[in-house]
């Protein structure tokens, strides 16, 4: 039958975009979220159960009540900087949440799990673009918590006989092109929303962390993937598992790298406003270049990003902030 889907973290940035994409395919996703960082307004495509993952009894009760067979697991803490100052929070919420969730899945009718992993599990990669078989040597507690979750999922899915996929996201950005959802973090730390807030005059200047890297313009290079493309990748992973696909760990990125200064120029172009910039020392723990080899996702899932060129990502993000330049062409 049609899988009955639970989305943990469905009230957050990525989870809400995935719920919208699931709804467009006829699903009515159950959002399971403690609303610690997510918001109720993001939950529009199915019911919300306000539950903390670490409360395994409540999670099992909820999964059973909704006859859930498939779990997409997004709920986690995701600030690299905070993970360094408060690592216990990351091991408790991310690793503890994962264990409690999987035990609840094992006690109920869940058959498959899709997990939000991260390129942060690679640390400073030996090779670029990064392939899935690159050594995973994370350099901060956030990345380590995600790597631990990958191992825990592999072992516990084996125990319970679940199908599973671990999707390693690169830099997720942009917003729903229909304007129903946007990227919103408190505090905001991500490059594109901060640059948009700066262009809007809500902050004085954009600080760029390091211009002495061994890259063409000296600033770091990242692989930006549009959140709607990322959502499609989840639907493809779901079809893959529904067809009995073997356990999978796969990068979801565009395979294209852009420097921090290129991103700021794209924000200026999309908004028609300057982004005052100040060069700062490097930020601890930033890999100079992080770009996906997205070949496996294309080959196995048919993953084909459509909105992940920088101009479209930044244009959609700008529009979601009410900041598009008059007559701008965003795609
Ligand atoms: N940057 C600045 N100034 C800022 C903010 C960011 O120069 O004010 C730079 C960063 O130093 C980095 C680039 O912009 O070079 C991108 O930084 P982000 O903070 O937007 O994203 P990260 O590349 O740090 O992403 C990492 C991991 C992801 C993880 C995410 C969690 O790569 O896997 O942090 O927030 F999900």
Automatic annotation (TrEMBL):
This protein's pathway: Carbohydrate metabolism; galactose metabolism
Domain NAD-dependent epimerase/dehydratase: 5-253
EC number assigned by the record: 5.1.3.2
Top-rank taxon, per record: Bacteria
Keyword Lipid metabolism: no
Matching InterPro entries: Epimerase_deHydtase, NAD(P)-bd_dom_sf, UDP_G4E
Keywords annotated in UniProt: Carbohydrate metabolism, Isomerase, NAD
Cofactor(s) the protein needs: NAD(+)
Short name of one Pfam family: Epimerase
Catalytic activity: UDP-alpha-D-glucose = UDP-alpha-D-galactose
One GO term of the biological process aspect: galactose catabolic process via UDP-galactose, Leloir pathway
Classification via CDD domains: UDP_G4E_1_SDR_e (cd05247)
UniProt GO molecular function: UDP-glucose 4-epimerase activity
Broad class of enzyme this protein falls into: isomerase
Family: Belongs to the NAD(P)-dependent epimerase/dehydratase family.
NCBIfam families, per the entry: galE
Assembly and oligomerization: Homodimer.
Protein name: UDP-glucose 4-epimerase
């Amino acid at each position: 039958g049609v899988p009955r889907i639970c989305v943990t973290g469905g009230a957050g940035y990525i989870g809400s975009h995935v719920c919208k994409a699931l709804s467009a395919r006829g699903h009515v996703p159950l959002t399971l979220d403690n609303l610690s960082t997510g918001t109720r307004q993001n939950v529009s495509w199915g019911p919300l159960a306000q539950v903390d993952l670490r409360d395994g009894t409540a999670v099992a009760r909820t999964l059973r009540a909704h006859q859930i067979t498939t779990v997409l697991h997004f709920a986690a803490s995701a600030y690299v900087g905070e993970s360094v100052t408060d690592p216990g929070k990351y091991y408790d919420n991310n690793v503890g949440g994962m264990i409690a969730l999987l035990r609840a899945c094992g006690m109920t009718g869940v058959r498959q799990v899709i997990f939000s992993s991260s390129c942060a599990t690679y640390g400073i990669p030996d090779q670029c673009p990064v392939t899935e078989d690159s050594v995973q040597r994370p350099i901060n507690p956030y990345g380590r918590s995600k790597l631990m979750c990958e191992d825990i999922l592999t072992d516990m899915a084996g125990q319970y006989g679940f199908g599973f996929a671990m999707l390693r996201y690169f830099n997720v950005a942009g917003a729903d092109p229909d304007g129903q959802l946007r990227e919103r973090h408190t505090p905001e730390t991500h490059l594109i929303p901060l640059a948009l807030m700066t262009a809007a005059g809500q902050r004085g200047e954009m600080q760029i962390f390091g211009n002495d890297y061994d890259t063409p313009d000296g600033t770091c290079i990242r692989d930006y993937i549009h959140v709607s493309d990322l959502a499609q990748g989840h639907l493809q992973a779901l079809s893959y598992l529904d067809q009995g696909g073997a356990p999978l760990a796969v990068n979801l990125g565009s395979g294209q790298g852009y420097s921090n200064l290129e991103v700021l120029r794209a924000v200026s172009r999309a908004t028609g406003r300057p982004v005052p910039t100040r060069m700062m020392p490097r930020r601890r723990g930033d890999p100079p270049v992080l770009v996906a080899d997205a070949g496996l996702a294309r080959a196995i899932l048919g993953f084909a990003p459509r909105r992940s060129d920088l101009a479209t990502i930044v244009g959609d993000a700008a529009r979601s902030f009410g900041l598009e330049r008059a007559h701008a062409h965003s795609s």
